[in-house]
């Protein structure tokens, strides 16, 4: 067994860290307060090709894999972005670049991937619905074949990045859940031209006011007769579940990488404060009540990193990685939350002040326990598939 990162991942780590090092906590707090995309950082990532790592070289990318994307996201989060880094690598590099590279037709790859690599096209992803929640099987957004196009109607919720996206990777039902045999049949994944649909009046969206991760908006999305050309199906009609798992597993792995990087960042902020703060004549970090909880979280972060890398390594090799992706997401999200909570306690009352970044990281870390999949569903998966316990849902 070799636990050394490949040279490609080391180069990614160092390159992204160099960019992250140019932007301090004041910058990220300002982006969050102003509810604006970190455009300056994004432009640098695009200029260096750090966003197109998983796009094949013949289409302008680096020809690498999910492991390199995970390392890039982790490095950006640890370098200062915290939770804000996750969507910068999920929306276009993963939902667009990674998915089209693996499941797009030759024509789709030639059309979309060079534009993504050049920073000329951005994407987002829509699966969650108000009544289905985390139960993807029960989505009701319908795509009906009409000549050389599909006509889509339905509603999605908590869709991040709509305000920036040129194309939406949309999960639909072409066979209703009640009629699908097996249950996973009848999904079709479509590439929707957002601006075209908005101009036609068939797609609208409304941002949802939210507690954190305010560098990207999350919206309610309404689809009312959106026409999508049939040649913009990703994968096969009615067989989109294979595509869907190759979106959801990378999403969980990248979310885990964001949790690892965020956990490291928050630990560093807490430890810096614990070394400097000395209200009783010596640094508070010298006391076991402060030091030991931080040390335990460091151990949790390191364990989460190992599983994150393993899951990405498996995905890159086309091997099953569902359990590993779930475990990585579960442990990394919990480590990031524990780190934020302990950083809050370490800072005492000053954690409540917006002069410090702890409050922002506390808010951003909490949602990671619920998205992209709630930890209860992860535990249910582990209980059933790893422990052989009866299905609970």
Automatic annotation (TrEMBL):
Alphabetical list of InterPro entries matching this protein: Acyl-CoA_dehydrogenase, Acyl-CoA_Oxase/DH_mid-dom, Acyl-CoA_Oxase/DH_mid-dom_sf, AcylCo_DH-like_C, AcylCo_DH/oxidase_C, AcylCoA_DH/ox_N, AcylCoA_DH/ox_N_sf, AcylCoA_DH/oxidase_NM_dom_sf
Enzyme Commission designation: 1.3.8.7
Keywords associated with the record: FAD, Flavoprotein, Oxidoreductase
Boundaries of every Acyl-CoA oxidase/dehydrogenase middle domain copy: 124-226
Signal peptide: none
One Pfam family matching this protein: Acyl-CoA_dh_M
Acyl-CoA dehydrogenase/oxidase N-terminal domain residues: 9-120
Domain of life: Bacteria
GO MF entries: medium-chain fatty acyl-CoA dehydrogenase activity
Domain Acyl-CoA dehydrogenase/oxidase C-terminal: 238-369
Catalytic class of the enzyme: oxidoreductase
Cofactor or coenzyme needed: FAD
Similarity-based family: Belongs to the acyl-CoA dehydrogenase family.
PANTHER family xrefs: DEHYDROGENASE, PUTATIVE (AFU_ORTHOLOGUE AFUA_7G06510)-RELATED, MEDIUM-CHAIN SPECIFIC ACYL-COA DEHYDROGENASE, MITOCHONDRIAL-RELATED
Protein name per its UniProtKB record: Acyl-CoA dehydrogenase
Organism listed in the record: Actinomadura algeriensis
Record lineage: Bacteria, Bacillati, Actinomycetota, Actinomycetes, Streptosporangiales
